[in-house]
Amino acid sequence: MASQTLPDSVIIVGAGIFGLSTALAIARRYPDPKVTVIDRQTPPVEDGTSVDTTRCIRSVYADPDYGRLAAKAQRMIEADPELKPHYFKQGMSFITSGRPGPLLEVWKKGLAHLESQGKGGSVVHMKTPEEVFQRVHGKGAEPAPDSKLSKERSWNYGYCNLEDAFIDAKESIRVCYERCLEQPSITFRCGVPVHRISIQNGRATGVVLENGEVLAAGLTLVAAGAWSPRLVDLEGMIASSAIEVAWIKLTDEEVAKWKNMSITTNLNTGLNLFPPHKGETKILRRSPGYKNTVTVPHPEDPSKTLQTSIPRTTVSNPTDVIPFEAEVGLRDQLREIMPSLADRPFDRTKLCWLSHTSSSDFIIAPHPRIQGLHVATGGSGHAWKFLPIIGDLVLDSVHDKLPKNLKDKWAYAPKGADMGNASMLRGEIKELRDYVRSSDDGVRSRL
Ligand SMILES: Cc1cc2nc3c(=O)[nH]c(=O)nc-3n(C[C@H](O)[C@H](O)[C@H](O)COP(=O)(O)OP(=O)(O)OC[C@H]3O[C@@H](n4cnc5c(N)ncnc54)[C@H](O)[C@@H]3O)c2cc1C
């Protein structure tokens, strides 16, 4: 679709950052086309990847394209009077054990890149475990001695980039949804999932909902996040997998003590620890994670089936809690950096689903075989921060106007190796059914 116009009707499947941002971009550029955003639920979608208490906003990337785009998006968030109240610029610390491995290289590249950009003034260096610990707990706080740790020390040295921030992702998505509602050309159909894309003679003609209703459109965009492989054959380019997240309620004294801490992340162990927000702290582990392999009808040929992983969440399984081994992993990590919380009950937990590509590059491209069908997915653990600009880029892709470097990077084609844009720990992605745990069952060990 190379011309700078759009068909009269556009369907967007998915009201996460890709879908909402694109709906707004279309409405702002072209008031006439009727845009229908369809989601399983009403935004902010509780189990959608874009909805959470916090997301990191950072602009230091080894990849210059993401770095430039992230810096632009961050400036837009800071200048946006409705997003600004949900944005907290408290810095982000990147800590390493210093032991060799691919993530040590990512850590080194991140620091070198920051310094090469002349941003040394916004960096605080931590040269010892004591300095790392005190950046979280305040001057004079002492980390546990080696004799009290069951494992080799992991929080040894690092740096904090004071330019980085976190944002309340749920409230920001609410802002974005409400902006869409104000646009006369955008309507929402929430509550009934899309069953499949309608395809006639190699052309997408809209969607069929799970209740059998058919909705027609001249252009259909699949922005269904980790659910996307259910609707388009992504040929293994994305892995839908989930990582563990937990929340711990804090006392007023703890909130006062930690309220100015930075997001604190360990690039060897994958732990992310967030500053207090609304009386609680969030922790997550960028572990290899879990998948939920199921057999589904082939999206392009319903007479065939396809094996793929799609999210299993608390919407369909309300009593699910994170696997036992995931809980153990989070607590093990807290023992060294946040010892007073290591045995505190979790208020709640969840598995957060990612649509992850091998290189962490997104897929924003026309479907190679089906006319009138576009895809915007593969957010890979780092797409949220692009919320203010990603919709315009999707629209540029629809018009085949993306600069060549972005068109190539986001092509509907197999991706390359991980370049450290959103690194996850390496290892086997486990089948969730073997580890699933319900709050009704109590603790079931698979260690
Ligand atoms: C634990 C975790 C931490 C992260 N941290 C960061 C971070 O700090 N910074 C950052 O920039 N990024 C981060 N990310 C990545 C970022 O959150 C995602 O890349 C981004 O939110 C993905 O958005 P999306 O629109 O693709 O998916 P989603 O938000 O999941 O939206 C997809 C929508 O499609 C809907 N849908 C699916 N199937 C159907 C159907 N059949 N019919 C109708 N609707 C359907 C779903 O209900 C959902 O609302 C993180 C991700 C995770 C998992």
UniProtKB/TrEMBL annotation:
<keyword id="KW-0560">Oxidoreductase</keyword>
<dbReference type="GO" id="GO:0008115">
    <property type="term" value="F:sarcosine oxidase activity"/>
</dbReference>
<dbReference type="GO" id="GO:0050660">
    <property type="term" value="F:flavin adenine dinucleotide binding"/>
</dbReference>
<protein>
    <recommendedName>
        <fullName>FAD dependent oxidoreductase domain-containing protein</fullName>
    </recommendedName>
</protein>
<dbReference type="GO" id="GO:0004657">
    <property type="term" value="F:proline dehydrogenase activity"/>
</dbReference>
<dbReference type="GO" id="GO:0050031">
    <property type="term" value="F:L-pipecolate oxidase activity"/>
</dbReference>
<dbReference type="Pfam" id="PF01266">
    <property type="entry name" value="DAO"/>
</dbReference>
<dbReference type="InterPro" id="IPR006076">
    <property type="entry name" value="FAD-dep_OxRdtase"/>
</dbReference>
<dbReference type="InterPro" id="IPR036188">
    <property type="entry name" value="FAD/NAD-bd_sf"/>
</dbReference>
<keyword id="KW-0274">FAD</keyword>
<keyword id="KW-0285">Flavoprotein</keyword>
<feature type="region of interest" description="Disordered">
    <location>
        <begin position="290"/>
        <end position="312"/>
    </location>
</feature>
<comment type="similarity">
    <text>Belongs to the MSOX/MTOX family.</text>
</comment>
<feature type="domain" description="FAD dependent oxidoreductase">
    <location>
        <begin position="10"/>
        <end position="394"/>
    </location>
</feature>
<dbReference type="InterPro" id="IPR045170">
    <property type="entry name" value="MTOX"/>
</dbReference>
